[in-house]
Predict the structure.
Amino acid sequence: MNNRGRFGSKLGVVLASAGSAVGLGNIWRFPTEVGQNGGAAFILVYIAFVLFLAMPVMVSEFVIGRSSGANIVHAFRKLAPAKWWIIIGFLGVLGGVLVLSFYSVVAGWTLKYTVDAAMHRISGTDPAQTFNSFVSDTWSPMIYMALFLLLTHLVVIRGIKGGIERYSKLMMPLLLFIIVILVGCSVSMPGSAEGLRFLLKPDFSKVTPHVVLSAMGQAFFSLSVGIGCLATYASYFNKNMNLAGSAINVCAIDTLVAIISGFIIFPAVFSVEGVQADAGAGLVFITLPHVFSSAFAQMPLVGYVFSTLFYLLLLLAALTSSISMHEICTAFVSEHYNLTRKHAATLVTLVYLVLGAACSLSFGPWKDYTLAGMTVFSWFDFATAMFVMPIGGIFITLFAGWYLDRKLLTDELTNNGTLKVRGLRVLIFLIRWVAPIGVGMVFLNEVAKLFK
Ligand code: PFF
């Protein structure tokens, strides 16, 4: 028996994995991408990528994680002794480091806006100026980032069952409950029909090759696949978990939350005249404060409840995702260097504090330190979305589909033949052929463009 810890229930597994998947990517990035890239047409492309490319990667990660029962680096070492596959494990740890470093900066902004909303301090007068002066400051965004990392740290040090599972079981239902309230508020606002139309009107002319790549990047990021995050969680799964079924549940929850977030944001945005809908990344921190304060002026209680719950939702989503990214590195450091979970997590948090600070400064004093026109923050974002996740996805599916013994793959998926998995052959076909070739083609196409 090992002392790595285990998830205690099936519900805990699905909620923790869905917690990893549902994050800033769903509530903030997805609606913006839909709004800008062809509405329902983008949603269709996105769903196809989730089903045919990202879901097979997720199932492969589950197989690799559970069958090895180890962190992502040791998983490859165990399953493929003395082979170069271990590089994919290290790439995963690197991905975890890069993503959480920039993610915690945005999560820090979210924490600040949650506090402001709760204290009635969201102001509608020039929200762009308020936001820009906050993020370009040296210390305050860094302090919020550090506080966010501290929250993450406090969950991770409590271990799998008492930390990650327990808090996911608390936070995910709360998150889903808040979503339901917010959709109700948003669609009942005047002018909301126009917002729904904007979100859903299919415009296939906007689905360019670049949009196709961004849909794939978004699917990978949103489902947390390609960097061994879900493989790490799966290393704590029980042997009776249905891997394929859980992956489908997680994909469904994640996609639904992403689409419903659009139903929260756009009707609200369109309810205020003169507000630009496709305001890009500023949507959540600039456009919405404007919307909230105007709602507040007309209906003070609704405005207050709406804004506070919205940022709280974003914060909870960010937290359940960040603990999963932290866990990739904590599991690796603690098992590789034989450290206790507390010591490993502390080391990992310290590294995140330093790298997160560099990302945070990218909006302030370091905004002119650029390489090829990109700041540290943009580099971290670009490197993971563009390289680490797709490359990880390709090799993870190749590993599960071709390197691993076919019998081991089938045994894992069917729990040694005790479970009947509908569509098993289709799933294996997706893992072996469709996902690696599909991701490879989209990836190479985009890399070729970089060198043109
Ligand atoms: N899936 C998360 C989101 O949509 O915000 C982000 C994420 C979490 C990416 C965990 C990668 C990861 F390993």
Remarks:
- Residues 10-450 form a domain with the Hydantoin permease fold (CATH 1.10.4160.10).
- The radius of gyration is 21 Å.
- The pocket of 4-fluoro-L-phenylalanine is lined by residues 20-21, 23-26, 99, 221-222, 224, 227, 229, 321, 324-325 (CB under 6 Å).
